[in-house]
Automatic annotation (TrEMBL):
Protein name, as recorded: ABC-type branched-subunit amino acid transport system ATPase component
Keywords on record: ATP-binding, Nucleotide-binding, Transport
Gene3D superfamilies in UniProt: P-loop containing nucleotide triphosphate hydrolases
SMART domains linked to this entry: AAA
Residue ranges annotated for the ABC transporter domain, each copy included: 3-236
Superkingdom to which the source organism belongs: Bacteria
Record carries keyword Nucleotide-binding: yes
Keyword DNA-binding annotated: no
């Protein structure tokens, strides 16, 4: 099982957001997308998850083409994601949000699902907050709820959009543990991250995007030592590519 992005192009008017981007994300591996703001990272996540339809290209999960399938259908096929802005139901309890994510319906509340939701919340340190409304949680707890919903959906591919940003040290460590566990279970994991130490710690493959183009792919050491990446990401933009 792989997630393959092939020659994807997205333009908003005269602005090209993705210009022929290709990558392959393997199961049991973490693929990190890095690059400056506006590089196209979140746009690529939006294309994979079905929120944006590209002008051209292909996205395949195993042998199944994802393009022209709805975001809901892609979620049912195993593509699950987090958002920078979290998108929680502020007036719904932590437990109910997790159960809803597992069953994707408000009409079914099986005992099995409730037990599983409780186990997930325990793993994420949320057992004491399971009856609390999401709006009343700390920022780090809200991010943990976002991960709880992804775990409950039992997806095959995770798209994590700056999920570690703003976490306290213990929350950060727990996030890394959960991602490592997901990797060991054979999930496909893509993450957008500006914390380069986290990228070094977690990523098996790093893809550097700039102005909608993939400019370097490799291990963290390989990409971080690439002269073009160093010029564009770590230094001044004084080099055209």
């Amino acid at each position: 099982m792989t997630l393959q992005v092939n020659d994807v192009r997205v333009a908003f008017g005269g602005l090209v957001a993705l210009d022929g981007v290709s990558l392959t994300a393997e199961p049991g591996a973490v693929t990190a997308l890095i690059g400056p703001n506006g590089a196209g990272k979140t746009t690529l996540f939006n294309v994979i998850s079905g929120l944006i339809e590209p002008e051209s290209g292909s996205i395949r999960l195993d042998d199944a083409e994802l393009l022209r399938r709805s975001a809901r259908r892609r979620a049912r096929m195993g593509i699950v994601r987090s958002f920078q802005e979290l998108r929680l139901f502020g007036g719904v309890s932590v437990q109910e949000q997790t159960v809803f994510a597992a069953e994707r319906t408000v009409f079914t509340r099986s005992h099995h699902t409730r037990v599983r939701a409780t186990q997930i919340l325990d793993r994420l340190g949320l057992s004491g907050a399971r009856r609390d409304l999401a709006a009343n949680l700390s920022y780090g707890q809200q991010k943990a709820v976002s991960i709880a919903r992804m775990l409950a959906m039992n997806g095959r591919a995770w798209l994590l959009d700056e999920q570690a940003a703003g976490l306290a040290p213990r929350e950060y460590d727990l996030f890394c543990e959960v991602v490592t566990e997901a990797k060991e279970r054979g999930l496909i994991i893509l993450l957008i991250e500006h914390n380069l130490q986290l990228v070094r710690d977690l990523a098996d493959v790093v893809v550097f995007l700039d102005r909608g183009r993939e400019l370097a792919t490799g291990t963290a050491d390989e990409v971080f030592s690439d002269e073009v990446v160093r010029a564009l990401y770590f230094g001044k933009r004084d080099q055209e590519v």
